[in-house]
Amino acid sequence: MALVNMQDLLGQAREDRYAIAALDVVSLDFVEAVVEAAEACRAPIIISLAESHFEHYDFELLMSAVVTAARRSTAPCAIHLDHGASLDSATRAIRFGCNGVMVDASHRPIAENLALTREIVALARGCGVAVEGELGYVPGVEGEDAERHPGDVVYTTPDEARTFVEETGVDCLAVSIGTIHGRMRGTPDLDLARLAEIADAVAVPLVIHGGTGLTDEQFRGLIERGVAKINYYTALADAAADAIRSAAAADPRAGYGRLTLAVRAAVRREAERVIRLFGSAGRADAVLTRCRPWREVEHLILFNADGDEASVRAMKDEGRRCLGVLPGVRQALTGEAVKPDARYRHCWLIRFSGEPVIAAYDHHPEHLAFADQRFRPVAGDRLKIDYELD
């Protein structure tokens, strides 16, 4: 399994002066393409899912594919929620398998941005999940995502960046220094001097949104000045669309399968290009050696219960409902022994997104209320153990 801790991944990139490509995916073709590109380049990547794209796919279903692809990848991967809309979005993303989250409050007044980002950090910290904050505003100009980012650019200042990082505790910071979401019109004018000052002012890796359209030289300039994560989507979407248009031109009567046949290869080529450009090719082995693996934990309780069958079933139903939505809980399952003479008749199987969730779950007030009032009074005979999955 090549899922790794995202905070470690970005810290390594910042230390060694390269950037991780955070590649937004919108379909299974994109997922397979970016993982194949990472493996071909022997590079770490961040598989990114933007809430603004959820109209194109079912988030829970695609996340299942992303988690499976990341686990079986031979290249190190992290999974990130990009431009989440709320605290609930972050909670849901962690439940489905993200080990990095970003809730976008950059368009709000600074006080609101600080307050919401602090909430996200408090939630995610208990789950061991990395948090990206954004300060300043990166607008859209044209292209598939531009309409989702209206308004004018608001540049990040070094002093504001220092204060924001200190007051929120974010693990990385997205800054505005002249990039835009979507496609560039004309020649982009980046404030690299500002970027260098921000990098000197904060101790966390920096992130750039709106990477499509920059020159190779500009990308290198960003990385030299402390950028460790670059979000990249529009050019991948354009490569996929070009492949479909070419297939349609070659065969106007082609069906869906033939029209989309070349999409994965087209997205993979563009992903490989930027991975190499960002300097992360060939870094996989070092990352796997130096970054903590990201493993789920299974919290298993075997128990016998006092009471009739209906009351025990009602207790289990209530527990699945209230425990299954706690931060970092991926699933809350109950079961019953197959053989009637088993030592324990019932079980809980609760899947945590990672080891740090154990302590947060143990002390969560809703878990304590259920355990003290509903579970422990009827389940005095029980055995509990936590497993970190290989």
UniProtKB/TrEMBL annotation:
Stored InterPro entries: Aldolase_TIM (IPR013785), Class_II_FBP_aldolase (IPR050246), Dabb (IPR013097), Dimeric_a/b-barrel (IPR011008), FBA_II (IPR000771)
Pfam families listed in its UniProt record: Dabb, F_bP_aldolase
Listed CDD domains: TBP_aldolase_IIB (cd00947)
Stress-response A/B barrel domain sequence ranges: 297-387
Domain of life where this protein originates: Bacteria
Xref: NCBIfam families: cbbA (TIGR00167)
Record-given protein name: Ketose-bisphosphate aldolase
Organism the protein comes from: Thioalkalicoccus limnaeus
Organism placement in taxonomy: Bacteria, Pseudomonadati, Pseudomonadota, Gammaproteobacteria, Chromatiales
